[in-house]
Design goal:
Layout: H1 9-27, E1 32-38, E2 45-50, E3 53-59, H2 67-78, H3 85-93, H4 96-107, H5 118-130, E4 137-140, E5 155-158, E6 163-166, H6 177-192, E7 196-198, E8 201-203, H7 207-214, H8 219-235
Parallel strand pairs: 1-3, 4-6
Antiparallel strand pairs: 2-3, 5-6, 7-8
Bound molecules: zinc ion.
């Protein structure tokens, strides 16, 4: 049975707001909870207390936790009650099957190339520019066709699967990191600004998309690099 897809960005945002609010309410009015959601199963839940701030990072499975588990999160992360961790462990253990199934799906995508780790790039950009709200898998595209071609798609975003693929021609030591970042940033923007219809025409990159893209710090450098090296990428 295929694993259900992780929640969409909109779903996760809504549920995260509710969860942050619930935890804050349990801890008292002077506590502010900053919650971010991830799909990383190695650290299901982590936190940092910087009073009055509580920074909380949870696996998306906690977004659907029943009230008793939410209370345990507040006790564990907010009040330092280690005993509450037991209920959290149980909650996670009961969902191991699903976590593993999701991980199997995710591992079908390879993120670590010879030169760049796309998961690392994605996580960094997500924190820096999207407040950790982009929900997508990422991986290198497969079996690049060798030889001459007329065009090359360096990145692609699949809305339905919430999946970003980056062309393996970029996994080379002579490709600068900022260019890979630019490609990934561009595909992440597709989740924030889906293509729209404008007077009957399908606009793949709406104006808001373009504006945000231009705000990328190395935007001009990335375009210049692409222009200068595209012919070499096409030959790979
Ligand atoms: Zn695009």
């Amino acid at each position: 049975m295929p694993a259900p897809a992780p929640p969409s960005r909109q779903q996760a945002l809504g549920a995260a707001r509710v969860l942050a609010h619930q935890v804050a309410a349990l801890l008292g009015s002077d506590v502010k909870v900053l919650l971010s959601v991830h799909d990383n199963r190695s650290t299901m839940i982590s936190f940092r207390r910087e009073p009055p701030l509580l920074r909380l990072r949870v696996h998306h499975l906690f977004l659907e936790a029943p009230h008793a588990v939410v209370e345990a999160i507040a006790d564990y992360a907010g009040r330092g009650k280690r005993a509450a961790g037991k209920l959290l462990d149980e909650y996670i253990a009961e969902r191991q099957e699903r976590i593993r199934a999701e991980a199997r799906r995710a591992s079908a995508l390879s993120t670590r190339g010879a030169c760049f780790d796309l998961a690392e790039v994605f996580d960094r950009l997500n924190q820096l520019y999207f407040q950790d709200t982009i929900r997508a898998r990422i991986g290198w595209g497969r079996n690049a066709r060798r030889g001459r071609r007329k065009s090359i798609r360096l990145g692609v975003y699949d809305h339905r699967a919430r999946e970003i693929r980056v062309h393996p021609a970029l996994d080379r030591p002579d490709v600068p990191l900022f260019f890979v970042e630019y490609i990934v940033f561009h595909e992440m923007l597709h989740q924030v600004f889906p293509s729209a219809r404008d007077s009957g025409r399908h606009v793949h990159h709406p104006r808001a998309f373009r504006d945000r893209e231009r705000a990328f710090p190395r935007y001009a450098a990335a375009l210049a690099w692409e222009k200068e090296h595209l012919h070499a990428l096409l030959r790979r």
